[in-house]
Structures are given as structure tokens and as C-alpha cells.
């Protein structure tokens, strides 16, 4: 591949722009080499504010949301230095679906059964999957992130790497505040802007969060009805089938062409997988009476393999990780065992 060298004058101009950015970063209290945006942060924020105004965000909301907003060094550090994912699938599953979480999840599933059943009936999602996602995303509301969402998103939107994505998420967050769902000072979340007990990004909040308790606000931070309803609505609107489960662990026969067949792109009926030698973990036949279409997935490099039904694909819309989707399904199964 050929490489086109930039014009010398463009290079000089870029260096000058970076010096200006460094000056703006120093004013904002951020290390000069931490930010890639050539525009000083205060000027960038003014432009963003004008854009938000043009989209109908009120002056009152903007004044409250942008009060004291500055780039957060820790956000950039976490974004730049995310550790390589070195856990094996088995290690990941052991951490995420541990006995303590299963026990707590079973207790909460029973404690909130009436409310979960209401959400299940309205949105067509089994309660155990609502609780499984709640547990994995925030440890049942215990860990929701302590970063101010507006400042975190402003930091990432100002940064030059994924600015367009986070700028839109920031505008969505301002819209959520403007609609009165939460006060600007109370909007906290992860360093990347995921919010509340369901860890919704602002765009997901706008698309899927619901006011299930009927108080006029969609509150995924403190209202369990809204948390459960929002999780169920996300799955329901994404294609969830309440008559199906997520999948099941299976054993593969010797010589199974996993590199070709173990992928979500390959779909076969259970009877077809049965003919290829795929079996339940106890060695029994697959449940071909209802000849569902499924894929085989292998989340890690070990022997673990799973049948993945269409609901598995819905979980993947939430988080495009085989580790995550399989963990949600596994936790939901273990919660059902204690029902």
C-alpha cells in the first residue's frame, strides 16, 4: 500500500494547531499531549452549546449541564489504556457468573417477582433474563459508575479519536436532562457515559428507557420499575421471542470443523446439528421435536461450545461480545434452577 506524505505547509499548520490545543488544554487542567483536538476546549464547548441550542436544548439545561465542565484526565487514561482482554472464557465466566451473584440474583428474582412479571407480560421477556442483565451490567444496581456523564462525554467528544460518536451521545444526554428525566448534577455513570442500573448509553436511553412506574420520568438510576421495564423493552424491541430460551451448552464430536461451522453466520436446524454429531452435554440427543434454527458458538479457545438461538443474537445487540452474551444466558439458566 502506498503512503502519501502530507504537504510540508500542512504539517507546519498542524503543529501550530496542536500548540494552540495544548494551550487550551493547560487552561482546562489537562496534560498537553492528552487531547488530540486542535481547538481549545472553551471554544469547542461554545460551538457545542450553539449546536445544542439549535436542536432545541434550553438555556436553563445548558447552564446547569455545562457548569464547571472540563476534560477529565482519568477518562482519557481509561480510554487510552484499556487493558487487553487476556482472561480466558472460563475465567471470565467464573468471575461474572459466580455463586455469590447467582445466590443474590435468585433472591432478588423472588423478591421482585410481581414487578418482574408485570414487565415480562408487557414487553415479552422472561424475568430471569431481565435479572441476568441487571446483575451483569451493574451487579444488581450496586456498581453504576461515579463519573459525571456530561463531563465524561465532553472529554471523549473533544478528544479526536471517536469525537463524532461521543458528540452525539453528549447531545443525547443533554436532551435527557432537558426532558426532565434527571438533573444534570445527578447524571452519573461509567467513564464512557453508560448510565444507571442498566448501563444505557444516552442513545439507548432515548430509544429504550421507559417510565414503568408512571411518575413522568424515565429513571434508570433509582427506580426499579423503570430499570426492569427499560431492560425488557430493549430486548423486546430488539426482537426477543419469549417462547425461546437463549441457547444451551453442547458437546461437539471429534473432528468437528469448528473453524468453519462455529460462527453466528452459519445457521442450521437442530436436526441438522444432530446429524453432524452435536449432542447435549450429557450425551443425549438435541431437542429436535421443535426443530429450531441455531448456530454454534465457541466464545473462547477451550472446548466450551454452545447452541445459540435467535434470542442470543438479541443479547448481542446489547453487547457485541460472545463472552457477554453467553454469560447472560448462563446466569439466566442458573437463576431458573433456583426458581
Total beta strand runs: 7
**Biggest sheet record:** 5 strands, antiparallel
SS class? alpha+beta
**Tally of DSSP helical segments:** 16
Low-confidence stretches: 1-34
Strand order of the largest sheet: 4-6-7-3-5
Question: What is the straight-line distance between the termini?
Answer: 59 Å
Residue share in β-strands = 5-15%
Average pLDDT number: 89
Helix content: 40-55%
Shape: globular
- Chain oligomer state: single chain
Task: Outline the structure in words.
The chain is built from 16 helices and seven strands. It has about 350 residues and is of the alpha+beta class. Among the domains are: about 10-70 and about 145-190, no CATH class; about 245-310, no CATH class. It has a five-stranded antiparallel sheet with strand order 4-6-7-3-5. It has a two-stranded antiparallel sheet with strand order 1-2. Helix 8 packs across helix 12 (about 225-235). Residues about 1-35 have low confidence and may be disordered.
Structure keywords:
52% helix, 339 residues, 7 strands, alpha+beta, 5-stranded antiparallel sheet
In short:
The chain has 16 helices and 7 strands.
Amino acid at each position: 500500500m502506498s503512503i502519501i506524505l502530507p504537504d510540508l505547509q500542512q504539517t507546519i499548520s498542524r503543529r501550530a494547531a496542536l500548540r494552540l490545543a495544548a494551550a487550551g488544554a493547560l487552561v482546562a487542567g489537562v496534560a498537553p499531549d492528552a487531547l488530540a483536538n486542535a481547538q481549545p476546549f472553551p471554544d469547542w464547548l461554545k460551538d457545542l452549546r450553539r449546536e445544542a441550542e439549535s436542536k432545541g436544548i434550553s438555556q436553563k439545561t445548558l447552564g446547569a449541564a455545562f457548569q464547571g465542565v472540563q476534560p477529565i484526565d482519568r477518562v482519557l487514561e481509561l480510554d487510552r489504556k484499556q487493558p487487553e482482554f487476556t482472561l480466558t472464557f472460563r475465567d471470565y465466566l467464573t468471575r461474572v457468573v459466580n455463586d455469590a451473584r447467582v445466590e443474590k440474583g435468585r433472591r432478588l428474582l423472588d423478591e421482585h417477582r410481581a414487578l418482574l412479571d408485570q414487565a415480562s407480560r408487557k414487553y415479552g421477556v422472561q424475568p430471569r433474563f431481565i435479572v441476568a442483565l441487571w446483575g451483569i451490567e451493574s451487579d444488581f444496581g450496586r456498581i453504576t459508575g461515579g463519573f459525571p456523564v456530561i463531563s465524561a462525554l465532553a472529554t471523549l467528544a473533544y478528544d479526536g479519536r471517536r469525537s463524532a460518536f461521543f458528540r452525539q451521545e453528549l447531545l443525547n444526554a443533554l436532551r435527557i436532562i432537558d426532558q426532565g428525566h434527571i438533573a444534570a448534577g445527578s447524571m452519573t455513570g461509567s467513564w464512557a457515559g453508560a448510565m444507571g442500573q442498566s448501563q444505557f448509553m444516552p442513545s439507548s436511553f432515548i430509544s429504550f428507557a421507559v417510565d414503568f412506574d408512571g411518575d413522568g420520568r424515565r429513571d434508570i438510576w433509582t427506580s426499579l420499575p423503570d430499570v426492569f421495564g427499560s431492560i425488557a423493552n430493549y430486548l423486546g424491541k430488539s426482537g426477543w421471542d419469549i417462547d425461546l430460551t437463549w441457547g444451551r451448552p453442547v458437546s461437539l464430536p471429534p473432528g468437528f470443523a469448528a473453524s468453519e461451522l462455529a460462527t453466528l453466520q452459519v445457521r442450521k436446524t437442530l436436526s441438522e446439528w444432530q446429524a453432524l454429531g452435536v449432542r447435549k452435554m450429557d450425551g443425549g440427543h438435541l431437542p429436535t421435536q421443535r426443530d429450531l434454527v441455531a448456530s454454534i458458538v465457541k466464545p473462547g479457545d477451550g472446548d466450551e461450545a454452545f447452541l445459540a438461538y435467535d434470542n442470543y443474537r438479541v443479547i448481542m445487540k446489547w453487547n457485541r461480545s460472545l463472552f457477554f452474551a453467553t454469560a447472560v444466558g448462563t446466569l439466566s439458566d442458573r437463576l431458573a434452577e433456583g426458581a
